[in-house]
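Changelog note: in this version the structure field was regenerated for every chain. One regenerated record is shown below for reference.
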Amino acid sequence: RYVIRMSFSASHLLIASKMVKDIRITYRRRHCFNNISNRVTPVKTPGGRLVAQYIAKRGKGPKCGDCGCKINGVPALRPFAYSRLAKREKNVTRTYGGSRCGTCVRNRIVRAFLIEEHKIVKKVSKPSSKKAAAK
């Protein structure tokens, strides 16, 4: 086991020294590297021992595929945690629910509508332009 010394603020150190004599704690898992995946915080057990409690990494959450902004209504979890959620909690009840944000969906709908309108206008104006050319 690897022994680590935690750096505390002065007030935290005083409280910890009153609780137990020695504030050294050991990692409980495999390696001793001080990186993001191996962060610990000291926690006092009911038995009075100070042990290392591991801090889980924060999730980033899903992003919109078009603009890259965060999708509202979907929690930001670690990837494996999504497997424990129900389907309704992983997406938004809307077209392109958990994939695109509401603004981008609105833009897509408006763009599709305008393209269809443009096609209809072209279709209507085509026969009248032929008549004008024939005269």
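Spot check on this record: The beta strands are 3-4, 25-26, 40-44, 50-54. The mean pLDDT is 84.
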